[in-house]
């Protein structure tokens, strides 16, 4: 995609990242998450938490922004050491969201590739990502070579959500 830049997010990007977060959750998770969760999400609330996450990123964690000239931040991702999941995966992609109008244009592919590069630079040679099993975007991870490596049920907001993990055991090939 012409003009697309993937770079580390800065504190000045926090509000734009929060806007992408809220808009993508409203588009992707309607009917999957409780309505009250989606309705109560605000850019202001998310901006504060993203500002903190961006400020905390270091050599092993990254918050990446997908920026298009004239349009600003159209997607973002975050990654770092694996927090949870099947044994054998050193890194984890924590989040990856692209505005609906920018999906299927290579933005998600570029963000995932940049996450893999950041994880490799941090000495983390494998990665996984957890996704809601009902989220149709899970097929993106399959198309990107991820293999389903785990499942879990997590109770959030009083609802049991089924999640699937997709993994890449060798990032050297990515």
Helix coverage percent:
25-40%
Order of helices and strands: EHHHEEEHEHEE
The level 1 CATH classification is Alpha Beta
Number of strands: 7
Tell me, briefly, the overall form: globular
Please describe the biggest sheet, giving its number of strands, its sense, and whether it closes into a barrel: 7 strands, mixed
**How much is the average pLDDT?**
94
Strand order of the largest sheet: 1-2-3-4-5-7-6
Distance between the termini: 19 Å
Structural class: alpha+beta
* CATH topology assignment: Aminopeptidase
Structural write-up:
This protein is α+β, with helices and mostly antiparallel strands and 174 residues long. It has a single domain (5-173), classed as Gcn5-related N-acetyltransferase (GNAT) (Aminopeptidase), CATH 3.40.630.30. The protein contains 5 helices and 7 strands. It has helices at 14-28, 35-40, 43-56, 107-121, 138-143; strands at residues 5-8, 62-68, 72-81, 91-98, 127-132, 147-156, 159-168. Strands 1-2-3-4-5-7-6 form a 7-stranded mixed beta sheet. Helix 4 (107-121) links the parallel strand 4 (91-98) and strand 5. Helix 1 (14-28) packs across helix 3. The longest helix has 15 residues, at 14-28. The radius of gyration is 15 Å and the shape is globular. The mean pLDDT is 94.
